[in-house]
Amino acid sequence: MSWLLVVLGGAVGAPLRYLTDRAVQSRHDSGFPWGTLTVNAVGSVVLGVVTGAVAVGAASDSVQLLVGTGLCGALTTYSTFSYETLRLAETGRRFLAGANAAVSVLVALGGVTLGAGLGRGLGG
Amino acid sequence: MSEVREPVDPDVDLRAAPEPVRVLPVLGAVSLGGALGAAARYAALLAWPASGAGFPWALFGINVVGSGLIGVLMVLVVESGLRVHPLVRPFLGVGVLGGFTSFSTYAMDLSGLLARGELLTAVGYLLGTLAGALGAVWAGAVLTRRLYRASEGRTG
User: Fold this and answer.
1) Inter-chain residue contact A17 with B94, CB threshold 8 Å
2) Number of domains forming the structure of chain A
């Protein structure tokens, strides 16, 4: 059962990342990977909410597996982040490469922290 | 500076679409790949559980290996001129590797280490994953470029 939940979450999270990335990247021409930053930020907030809610008993372990491990895990990505950072550095935009790494980590860490606070609030 | 216009985003390259691919098969390939990647990540996390404390080795390994593999894949599919099915990149790159690696779980691990006061481990995990993943994608791309250039040299 737990496997099914993770697989279902992954099957939804990955195309959601693709669609979000496409929508964001079509709205700017800056060369900065805003799309991946967006999915990583949103996925981190949602994972924080789920983990916080599970910690206070407001959500079940099944929700953690489906939405946390499956959906948020697949909605966010480290491989694409790595490749985009490499491409920025390889094309002479080293400052943007460093900025992408620093901002991605800070935004994701802020996202899970904010989300966990919200999730714990669901416990009343 | 034409090189500055090269695409950075491997998943969404709106400027260079040689042949239009229908969106539904792409979404299907991404979805199937994402399901497989997430299952593989779950399997690795079950096999090497983080045990509540200490360095999250499983996810570290997942993010480093996934980054190395996307370096190999992108050079093969985008740069080498190898003719592959148009769904290979959405399936393997966006789906499998994107679903396998996870930025949110990385951030959650970091947040947990900080909350438990394991400051040194948190900093080591933060910088170690960045260095490992960026080093792996660089090595994967550079080695694959060398290999296909060497093979081009042999075959003429």
Assistant:
1) yes
2) 1
